[in-house]
Amino acid sequence: MIELRHLHYFRTLAETLHFGRAAERLHISQPPLSRQIAVLEEELGVKLFDRSSRRVVLTEAGQRFYLDTATVLAAFEQAKRNALAAARGTAGELSVGFMMSTAYSVTPAITRRYAAQFPQVSLKLTETLPLDLAEDISSGNKDVAIMYRPQDCTGLESVTLYREEMTVVLPPGHRLLEHAVIDPCELAEETFIIVPRRIAPALHDMIYNYCLQFGVTPNIGLEINMQQTIVNLVGEGLGIAIVPRSMRNMRLTTTTFKPLRAAPVIEVVAVWKADNHNPCIETFIESARESCALVSRDEVQS
Fold first, then answer.
1. Distance CA 96, CA 133 (A)
2. Chosen CATH of 100-302 out of 3.30.70.141, 3.30.70.60, 3.30.70.1230, 3.40.190.290
């Protein structure tokens, strides 16, 4: 059976055309080199060298074999590099699910940075409802989720990527538009548009409990799955909403965002299954944390 060492022996002899010098370069003695070249020729069924007492010359078959083995060895070296990159998480495949609301905050920056840092990783991004993200991670349908912290983290690992204040969004002509900061007590008579608890329990509970702290029981008029739809409906005059601050980046002319007194803060986390050993997860988490740190820094400076 032909082994890689046979190819190295052959190429060294082909380049030196001298058994003694080739053996010296390979750090073996001349007789084993001669035997291995003979084994190679027997396996191939062709003569690679013309030998005489005075010189060694490549045959036509040997010249062809020399050219082709360069490709073989280059492919093997690339395979070694690929294996090492995959083991280090710098190459491979990674499936990431994200909430649509994070498309207005950190997901674009995370994606750009990771794609630039690890171009050999095939990154698949999928927009998914928070309700389904944790299940996708637990079932193995996705490697990482960018989401609000799930209620049940059994078997999951998570790390906080980003924290942002909640803000109130008002429709055109609203009576509170002139207020610099909105007190939750002033929202007692308002109709709220809110995400259903079954879709995003962390976000729903934060909004509801925040209002209760100020003696306000939210009058829920509409329950809508997507944050951007909620903001759009506020712009149509169907109610008010408390949403993550990054939703301002929708830049609708029909809505106005106002800060809240003692505004609550929502966390966006990266979640992955504890026994998922895809090495790309580690590089993604590290890159995502770096990216979100830059986003937070830029927000502070602005």
1. 10
2. 3.40.190.290
Closest CA to 150 of 211, 186, 99, 107: 99
Instruction: State pTM to two decimals.
Output: 0.71
Buried b / exposed e along 211-220 (16+ C-beta atoms within 10 A)? beeeebebee
CA distance 56 to 203: 79
Q: In 3D, which of 32, 56, 45 has the Cα closest to residue 2? A: 45
Residues across the chain: 302
Complete DSSP assignment for 143-188: SEEEEEPPS--TTEEEEEEEEEEEEEEE-TT-TTTT-SSB-GGGGT
Q: How far apart are CA 206 and CA 202, in angstroms?
A: 6
User: Over the stretch 236-247, which tens digit does the pLDDT of each residue have?
Assistant: 999 999 999 999
Distance, CA of 269 to CA of 258 (rounded, Å):
25
CATH T-level assignment (fold) for domain 4-87? Arc Repressor Mutant, subunit A (1.10.10)
- β-partners of residue 160 are 269
Residues 56-74 have pLDDT tens digits of 999 999 999 999 988 888 7
Residue labelled with tokens 């190429």: 11
Q: What angle do CA 108, 112, 117 make, to 5 degrees?
A: 150
